[in-house]
Amino acid sequence: MPSRDETEPKTPRTGLAVPQGRTRRFLHLGRAVGEMAASAAAGSLQQLARGQLPALQQLMLSPANARRLAGRLSTLRGAAMKLGQLMSMDGQGVLPPEFAELLASLRDQAHHMPATQLTEVLEREYGAGWHQRFRRLSFAPVAAASIGQVHRAETHEGQVLALKIQYPGVRESIDSDVANIGLLLRTPGLVPGHLDLAPLLARVREQLLLETDYAREAAHAAEYRARLGSDPVLWVPAVVPEHCTPHILATEFASGRPVADWVGPTRPQAERDHIALALCRLSVREFFDMRLVQTDPNIGNYLFDADTRRIALLDFGATEAVPVSRVEDLRELGLALKNDDHPRLEAAALRAGFIDASDPPEQTRAVIELMRLSGEPLRHVGPYDFGRSTLVGTVFEQGRAQVMGGSGFARTPPPDLVFLQRKFAGSFLLCSKLQARVDVAAVFGAHLHEPGAGAPAPQALAAG
């Protein structure tokens, strides 16, 4: 049996069981909506008493309401929590910064399962004698997210593993969670009424179903590891099939600290630049060379080992193959942005599906201008200083103003581009958080070549 000290929780908290069943989960979301509405109503009365005209959206999207919603979603986990994460990043600037930041914190603030529920899952997956499988297994998770939580285990042969254990009932709750979140998003004052979120919700549902398929994730991790090959900076922990089940994914245990620990100016600039450069180069190589993209740029999916200066890449549930046609669509967009060519950018955006020929001219202009603004690092000569730049905030504010005013995005991005777009946006956000300096033009390098110029030479990923 595993040693007793390793099977006891290492912290006094017991965790919260994952709510199961459509009715129970709906009640949790219903309470969240009720709490948000009550808070907005109280704020409205206070503003009226001061002679001010209440702004419903500001009241609904207050920091206090964000904390309430984040707390409920953290308890639910599963699809509801994952959608909360996506709302914080993929809302096209709909959400105020404070609200988006609090929802983004869901990535690493999920409650973990209590020991009793965890034991039930282990017994169901490994059988009644599961204790004999490992020399040690820590009941205290090293990470807890939306789909599952990760535990450290050691085999009798001395191999150290990371066991990603799926929460019970997560897959069965996806349809109801997506439907319930759809109802939540129709709450007055939460998101603009003219924005059609149905295609995004449908795409998210599809992605969540894929992310709960651990056999698929294991195959993608192995394929990604093979395509990445030997790299001086980046590595993918190998899958250990003999300890995998339909709801447990076992891999080598990766050492290092979360890249989030390097956020802030107290860490050496060289280390922050090293991490950001490596991950930016990876994003470009994934898309143009490997054509296999891990589309979840969650900062918690990267571990940095300061001793070896290597980065471990984790979590391949949101991995997608990229068709050659899409590579060419986005290569054309990149060329237009790099050359600051307005007519070419509009044609490329139309071809990719970011705008439509039936869109009003003012809407098209607004979207194209926002895309052009986002391409600033690509046009910059030399290292772009994300720490000094105000670009991320400016793009956010302009995007939000367009959505709220109805002059910008009338639709979500094309469904097959939602997560690819999220990867590139997430890479820039990561650079901003790290306050890194990255030569973005050099990172894209020969990948942005004119049609007929031939395929680019492979680009090394070593980062200084």
What does this structure look like?
The chain is an alpha+beta fold and 464 residues long. The chain has a domain at 257-464. 50% of the residues lie in helices and 10% in strands. The chain has 18 helices and 13 strands. The strands form four sheets. Strands 1, 2, 3, 4 and 6 form a five-stranded antiparallel sheet that branches. A four-stranded mixed sheet has the order 5-10-9-7, with no helix packed on it. A two-stranded antiparallel ribbon has the order 8-11. Helix 4 (63-76) runs parallel beside helix 6. It is globular. The model is unreliable at 3-14, 40-60, 89-96 and 456-464 (pLDDT under 50).
Spell out the blueprint of helices and strands.
Blueprint lengths: L3 H4 L14 H28 L6 H5 L2 H14 L1 H12 L7 H8 L10 H12 L7 E4 L5 E2 L3 E8 L4 E7 L3 H16 L12 H14 L2 H15 L5 E2 L12 E5 L4 E2 L10 H22 L1 E3 L7 E4 L4 E4 L5 E3 L2 H16 L2 H11 L8 H14 L1 H4 L4 E2 L5 H15 L12 H17 L2 E2 L1 H5 L20
Parallel strand pairs: 5-10
Antiparallel strand pairs: 1-3, 2-3, 3-4, 4-6, 7-9, 8-11, 9-10, 12-13
